[in-house]
Amino acid sequence: MRPLSELARPEPALEQLAVNTLRFLAVDAVEKAKSGHPGMPMGMADAAFVIWTRFLRYQPHDPAWPDRDRFVLSAGHGSMLLYALLHLSGYDLPLEELQRFRQLGSRTPGHPELGLAPGVETTTGPLGQGFGNGVGMALASRMLSARFGSGSFSPASYRVFGIVSDGDLMEGVASEAASLAGHWGLGNLVYLYDDNHITIEGDTALAFTEDVARRLEAYGWQVGRVDPYDRPELEAAIGRAVAETGRPSLVITRSHIAYGAPKKQDTREAHGEPLGAEEVAAAKRALGWPESPPFLIPPEVRVLFAERAAGLRPEYDAWHERMKRWQADQPQQAGLWDAMMEKRVPKDLFDQLVAAAPREAGATRNHGNVVLQRAAVLVPSLAGGSADLEPSTRTRIKDSPSVQRGAYGGRNFHFGIREHGMASILNGLAVAGGFIPYGSSFLVFTDYARPAIRLSALMKQQVLWVFTHDSVFLGEDGPTHQPIEHLTALRAIPNLLVVRPADGIETAAAWALGLERRDGPTLMALTRQNLPAIERPGFEPAALRRGGYVLREHRAGEAVTLIATGSEVWLALEASRRLDEAGLPARVVSMPAPQFFLRQDRAWREAVLPPRGRRVSLEAGATDYWHRIVGPEGLAIGIDGYGESAPYAQLQEHFGFTPEKVAARVLEWARGK
Question: For substrate, which residues are the binding ones (predicted)?
Answer without folding.
Answer: 37, 271, 365, 392, 469, 477, 481, 528
